[in-house]
Specification:
Elements (H helix, E strand, L loop, with lengths): L1 H6 L7 E9 L5 E7 L13 E6 L4 E9 L3 E10 L18 E3 L12 H4 L1 E3 L4 E6 L4
Parallel strand pairs: 1-8
Antiparallel strand pairs: 1-4, 2-3, 2-5, 5-6, 5-7
């Protein structure tokens, strides 16, 4: 194992762990998007990495996003309760399903900005918490 680390250090980059809390229903899937640039933030076609995981319990869950290069990132997530693969909103664009962002950025009446949700991932990895909320 040590030889692998010495010759292929990129295989052992920093790992990002996310603790999602306030899961109120044990159904559907959690959609998680990782953004690595401010100009890409919240743009579906510019997601750096994404993960979709089934939710089977209420309360909280831990999710590893695997290894990422050190840098600045922001997370956007939502709990797809009805399994349609999208964040449902009302006629005014307000989400009808639980959602959350890194740094628990929760401005009212608008989506968070990159600066509100961005965090640094060091070469040692890191862990963040995201609380899922409804509007």
């Amino acid at each position: 194992m040590l030889l692998l680390f010495l010759f292929f250090p990129s295989l052992f980059g920093p790992e990002l762990q996310i603790n999602f809390s306030n899961i109120r229903e044990a159904k559907g899937s959690l959609y998680v998007a990782v953004y690595d640039r401010s100009d890409a933030f919240l743009k579906v076609d510019k997601v750096y990495s994404k993960k979709i995981v089934p939710i089977g319990q209420i309360g909280s869950m831990q999710l590893s996003l695997g290894t990422l290069p050190p840098g600045k990132y922001a997370i956007s997530s939502f709990h797809d309760l009805n399994g349609n693969g999208k964040l449902d909103t009302n006629w005014a664009g307000i989400p009808n399903e639980p959602y959350g962002f890194s740094n628990n950025a929760r401005p009212k009446f608008r989506a968070p900005k990159w600066a509100e949700a961005a965090f640094d991932l060091s070469g040692l990895g890191g862990a963040i918490a995201v609380r899922l909320e409804e509007w």
